[in-house]
Amino acid sequence: MNQISFVLLAILATFTIAPVTHAQNYDIVILNGRVMDPETRLDAARNVGIKDGKIAVISEKDIDGIESINASGHVVTAGFIDTHTHSSDKFVIKMAMMDGVTSGMDYELGGLNIGAWYDREKGKWPINYGQCVAHEMVRITVHDDIVINEPVDAIEAFILRAKSAEDEIEGWSVTVSNLEQINQITKRLDEDLRQGALCIGTTPGYAAKGISTYELFEVQKAAARYGRPIASHTRFHGGTLPPNEAQMGFAEIFTNAALLKAPLLYSHNNDYGWWEIEEKLKLARAQGMNMWSEYYPYEAASTAIGAAPLRPESLEDMLGLKYEDVLYDPSQDKYLKKDEYLQVVKDDPGRTIVVFNPARKKWLPMWLRVPHMVVGSDGMCQKTRVSAGTTTQRSSRAIHARRAAIPRCCG
Question: Taking the model in full, what pTM does it have?
Fold first, then answer.
């Protein structure tokens, strides 16, 4: 186990100590590690003994076991839960395990045909896993007439987005649903929730012009009927100027969740206005509401170059950014000027692109000091078109390994 940290498996993730003696031999002992337990605030050098699949003792005294692991210089803690795991690719999952993750779910984008997805993934994950249903993918079936009968998840997201734009109109992103279409959307979301989806993931930042406030309210009602969360980033993702500040988009989903008495997870709260959003969530939790936010600890993100948040009216007008300063194309190993961006959008709207946000450099240290603001990886391995009729698997880490910051999908 030559990893950065030694992590106890999720099934061992409680520090409750069984009534056993220190002299007993354990199945596994983890020695000399820095043991950290956020619940009890333990942070000290300890030895951990495991017996019959459970933590039996945490002690300063010497202990023996059938298997012994020297954790000197490492942290020993309970397994991490990542609610922003965009990939079902097992190579990526193994990389997440090296970061200490023992439970991974996609609480932002999600997938479709959840029952079949669970059947497909059964017995294949080395960690705990789960899946939400994707509002975005349901909209693709309704507004782009794309039939999705097979189980899909975020690995297929860019492929589906590119396919939806083949007629030069990304219907799911820009088309406002009528009442009949809203009923179609919520009916399919309800079916996947019935099949075991952990939440509804929605991406109004990618469909700000298409998802009406009424549709989003009905979508949140669908999740609330099952007592499950809506997980979302804001409609005005990263917006800094009235009336399109990011906080206004947050207010929409926050109000719906509060009125519905429903759980809420605000995905990657790491852009302009995060401080206001986190303060409101803190006040909500103090009143008993199950509402949280997460951030990811790097300054960049990746998405398809044709995504709505990268269009001039968003990136230039709302965010005040210049393409050549923030938009990096890994396939050309260069930052793109506006005219180059527009050409790639026309030729290859599904191409993976990296977007840097300079402001995050000063915010990163702040997030580490905000109580109850948790980390999500936003990590993904995706299928990306490399030529007509072909796809290839790419790891976010592998694509951007040369970059100082490791960007992830859907930021």
Answer: 0.81
